[in-house]
Backbone:
């Protein structure tokens, strides 16, 4: 009885607020993982999906970096959304993202120098990763900070799922290893095509085929 | 001169922005459905690369690089007040590069809109897209690793642009033909496009190891 009373009181006190993880908010995270995936459905952020996925370790570092930049840029743009003049908003967004990427780059150089060398220019290219600009334009400019953070987490994870799957197949078939451990035996001869950009395109193409065959998404073309 | 030709050929074919580095893939996939739009965006990218790579070269060599600001001492800022030969602004390079690109694109868009409405209808709609095209920032970020002089950086920008232009027009041509073929339904659109790009990249792999005609 007492709990019911408390719940009622709370509802009465804050009629406009909704729970932090309401159904709508949970959807913000779960949709981009599959049905509205940033890479395979929205076609955003392809460059890094193809370029950094030769090995799993750099791929995971890349995913973490993108997730970090995405969350904080979405949060800051969402908080600033009412004060940014719309004519110069692209430059404002780019500068916020560029500052965040500079932080990521410095942290990687300080604590993970090898990975930072392997990722080379692709850390800097997080600035022009279309997922980030896309989410800022499509979501953060029109929504409150908390849903924007959830949207960023969802899209960042959706991006990571695809990148890690591509890297899994490329490292397994390309060098017979996973996370640097030989899993296909010492005698496995690496498949050079998988290590090259060609492999990335073909693996991603097949992955998209599999995903669309499963969830029935069709594209007019 | 021969060196410039080598850099041009290398950036068009061997180090092709799309097939060797996958830079600018998002707009590459989005606009390659029709040849006419592909030509428009390709020309806009070529122009912006040709202009912003030398601009960013100037920014890198006279502002960002360690000791690059020494010219301020030459202009009369006393060494005791500030010794610029030790200033290293590498940490700001992302912000400076992207600001140069975004500002240039915005200015070009305004200039084209004012002076040539015909060109604006042909290219203008693509210009805002270009500020976030990875190939523009990518070319700038490759600069510190390549020790170019000013002219070489301009040729590198132009060559990378032409390479991107060729790649996007070729893919658009293939996709126009592809619409007549019987592709399995879930593979249609993005899936088959990726596989096509993969096969095209395969063809471009054959340029690696080509002996360049001029010198080295």
Residues:
């Amino acid at each position: 009885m007492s709990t019911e009373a408390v719940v009622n009181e709370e509802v009465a006190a804050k009629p406009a607020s909704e729970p932090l993880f309401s159904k709508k908010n949970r959807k913000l995270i779960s949709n981009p993982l599959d049905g509205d995936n940033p890479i395979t459905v929205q076609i955003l952020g392809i460059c890094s999906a193809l370029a950094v996925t030769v090995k799993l370790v750099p791929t995971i570092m890349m995913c973490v970096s993108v997730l970090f930049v995405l969350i904080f840029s979405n949060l800051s743009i969402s908080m600033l959304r009412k004060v940014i003049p719309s004519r110069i908003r692209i430059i404002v967004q780019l500068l916020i993202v560029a500052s965040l990427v500079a932080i990521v780059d410095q942290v990687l150089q300080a604590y993970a120098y090898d990975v930072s060398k392997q990722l080379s220019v692709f850390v800097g290219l997080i600035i022009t990763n279309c997922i980030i600009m896309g989410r800022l334009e499509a979501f953060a400019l029109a929504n409150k900070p908390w849903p924007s953070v959830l949207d960023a987490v969802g899209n960042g994870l959706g991006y990571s799922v695809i990148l890690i799957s591509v890297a899994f197949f490329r490292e397994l078939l390309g060098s017979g290893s996973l996370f640097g451990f030989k899993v296909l035996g010492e005698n496995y001869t690496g498949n050079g095509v998988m290590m090259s950009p060609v492999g990335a395109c073909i693996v991603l193409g097949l992955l998209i085929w599999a995903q669309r065959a499963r969830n029935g998404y069709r594209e007019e073309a | 001169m021969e060196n410039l030709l080598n850099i041009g050929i290398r950036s068009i074919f061997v180090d092709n922005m799309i097939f060797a580095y996958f830079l600018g893939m998002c707009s590459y996939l989005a606009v390659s459905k029709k040849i006419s739009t592909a030509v428009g965006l390709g020309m806009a990218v070529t122009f912006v690369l040709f202009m912003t790579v030398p601009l960013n070269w100037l920014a890198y060599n006279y502002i960002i690089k360690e000791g690059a600001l020494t010219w301020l001492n030459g202009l009369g800022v006393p060494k005791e007040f500030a010794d610029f030969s030790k200033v290293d602004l590498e940490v700001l390079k992302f912000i400076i590069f992207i600001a140069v690109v975004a500002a240039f694109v915005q200015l070009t868009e305004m200039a084209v809109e004012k002076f040539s409405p015909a060109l604006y209808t042909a290219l203008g709609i693509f210009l805002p897209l270009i500020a976030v095209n990875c190939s523009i920032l990518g070319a700038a970020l490759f600069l510190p690793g390549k020790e170019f002089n000013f002219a070489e950086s301009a040729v590198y920008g132009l060559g990378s642009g032409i390479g991107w232009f060729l790649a996007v027009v070729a893919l658009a041509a293939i996709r126009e033909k592809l619409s007549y073929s019987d592709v399995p339904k879930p593979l249609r659109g993005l899936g088959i496009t990726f596989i096509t790009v993969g096969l095209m990249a395969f063809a471009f792999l054959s340029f690696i190891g080509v002996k360049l005609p001029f010198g080295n």
User: Anything to note?
Assistant: Chain B touches chain A through 53 residues (CB under 8 Å). The radius of gyration of chain B is 20 Å. The first helix of chain B runs from residue 2 to 14.
